[in-house]
Amino acid sequence: MTEAATPSDPAELTRFIEARYHARHRQQLPDLAALAGKVERVHAGAEGVPAGLAEVLSRLIGEMEVHMKKEELILFPAIRQGGRAGLNAPIAAMRADHHDHGEEIAAILRLTRGLTLPQGACRSWTALYDGLGDFVSDLEEHIRLENKVLFPQFETA
User: Fold this and answer.
1) Environment class of residue 156 by beta-carbon count within 10 Å: exposed (0-12), middle (13-18) or buried (19+)?
2) What is the pLDDT of residues 101-157, one digit of tens each?
3) What angle do helix axes 88-111 and 123-144 make, rounded to 10 degrees?
4) 8 Å CB contact between 97 and 67
5) Measured between alpha carbons, how far is 100 from 80 in angstroms, rounded to an integer?
6) How is residue 47 annotated by DSSP?
7) Model confidence pTM above 0.90
8) DSSP for 94-155?
């Protein structure tokens, strides 16, 4: 299945981001946090167990929900209304959140040794790392679209 082309119109791009990325992150993160908790419990003390990963993912659920709500309720509606003056501060706040999300991605990759499975990893562990790979890729593309494509259209010097 090929993904639809990314819209160039800013209003349409905000809708695309909500439908493609916000909805997907809300679907991915709770399942990944639960799976990480299971892997940590079942394999506690084993070589390469990503101890602390469930905590990172649980924290990220809350952080991202607040971030996405700020976009959905404040920033994106303003952009859809033509990007009225005064968007620099909300955009700067979103960029700061994106920086923090990047640090969380780094923590995920550090805890999972770059999503490298140990020899003989079980199906749950494999599913966790496959899902994390998808999540990290989605989040990086989500951040790129906002930081490099959407936000520059509404920032003033």
Assistant:
1) exposed
2) 999 999 999 999 999 999 999 999 999 999 999 999 999 999 999 999 999 999 886
3) 150
4) yes
5) 26
6) T
7) yes
8) HHHHHHHHHHHHHHHHHHTTTTPPPTT--HHHHHHHHHHHHHHHHHHHHHHIIIIIIGGGT-
